[in-house]
Amino acid sequence: MEDTSLQKDKTRLSTIILTFNEELHLERALRSVSDFSKEIFIIDSFSTDRTLEIAHAHGAVVLQNKFVNQATQFQWALDNAPITGDWILRLDADEIIESDLAVEIAQKIPTLTPEIVGINLKRKHIFMNRWVRHGGRYPLVMLRIWRKGHGRIENRWMDEHIVISGGKAITFEGGFADHNLNDLTFFTDKHNKYATREAIEVLNQRMRLFPRDRSVTKESTSLQTAVRFFIKEHIYNHIPFTISAPLYFLWRYIFQLGFLDGRSGLIYHFLQGYWYRFLVGSKVMELERSLSHLTDKHMISKELSRLTGHTLKWTDEKSE
Fold first, then answer.
1. Could you give the domains of the chain?
2. Looking at the DSSP assignment, which residues form a beta bridge with residue 126?
3. pTM listed for this prediction
4. DSSP secondary structure string, the chain?
5. What is the pLDDT of residues 151-209, one digit of tens each?
């Protein structure tokens, strides 16, 4: 078997992981990339648990920055981390590169021709320790590896994607898993916070409070991502949530065979496919009502910041 240090030198890949109190997951994530990643950067939002201790123990470079949202934090990493690799991998702390994908990355990346600037991975979701195979949840094809200088992250409050330029992407087949080990209280709390951020995105789509990133195309990311984005932006977000949320759940659970995922699958599809979507719509309605007396976009942004707890700065798109 080839020496690990030689594999890393040939692959020349740098991994970036965003963290905040990720002691439960971080060591697992670090181990999953250790055989092929030339360097690992931990961009931490001032954790108070053992996250930094674990990162240092595994030789990762730790940088800390105040968290605003995923997009701005990751772009800060791209702009400030001393990245020396030719390729960059975006990995969440609760995600795992499985052994077959690790081998595929190590073997294939050194052979890629210059026109290949992005690599899609097929993500599986593990919920309550079971693989969610149905309901349209596998595979989720995501662009997660790209050549340095050919990729950036969308400037969005929710559902941000890596977009590439100057070439095309291919897809690797190995295993890539999202496996969060926290309980349902954590899951629902996290999705409640996600719903607020997504409500901001929906309101911005409707009210044009600040410039929107419109970079997702089938050329800049995976075809699956581009199609899902188009449907969400141009169809789903224009249907009343009292109709769209239950229809989306039925589509996933019945027509995309989500019922085959068993009892844990029912919990997942109901919470993530119905409750979450209904919550986003409810928050949009609540925020719209609270803002209905305002007409000045600067004042709307200021009040929206107060209501959501997020700092939002209105910008006149004409002045950009």
1. 4-179 (3.90.550.10), 184-319 (no CATH)
2. 131, 179
3. 0.91
4. ---HHHHHHHH-EEEEEEESS-TTTHHHHHHHHTTTEEEEEEEES--SSSHHHHHHHTT-EEEE---S-HHHHHHHHHHHS----SEEEE--TTEEE-HHHHHHHHHHGGG--TTEEEEEEEEEEEETTEEE-STT-S-EEEEEEEETTSEEE---SSS--EEE-SSEEEE--S-EEEE--S-HHHHHHHHHHHHHHHHHHHHHHHH--S-------TTTS-HHHHHHHHHHHHTGGGS-HHHHHHHHHHIIIIIT-GGGGHHHHHHHHHIIIIIHHHHHHHHHHHHHHHHTT---HHHHHHHHHHHHSS------GGG-
5. 999 888 888 889 999 999 999 999 999 999 999 999 999 999 999 999 999 999 899 88
Structure tokens, 256: 């995309």
Q: Are 244 and 113 contacting, i.e. CB atoms less than 8 angstroms apart?
A: no
| Residue 142 to residue 18: CA distance in whole angstroms | 17
C-alpha distances (whole Å) from 296 to each of 150, 156, 301, 302 are: 38, 22, 9, 10
For the beta carbon of residue 243, count every other beta carbon within 10 angstroms. Answer: 10
Tokens of residue 18, six digits: 């965003």
Q: What is the dihedral of CA 300, 306, 312, 314, to 10 degrees?
A: 20
Token pair, residue 169, equals 């992407």
User: Tens digit of pLDDT for each residue in 51-79?
Assistant: 999 999 999 999 999 999 999 999 999 99
- Extract the tokens encoding 17: 């992981």
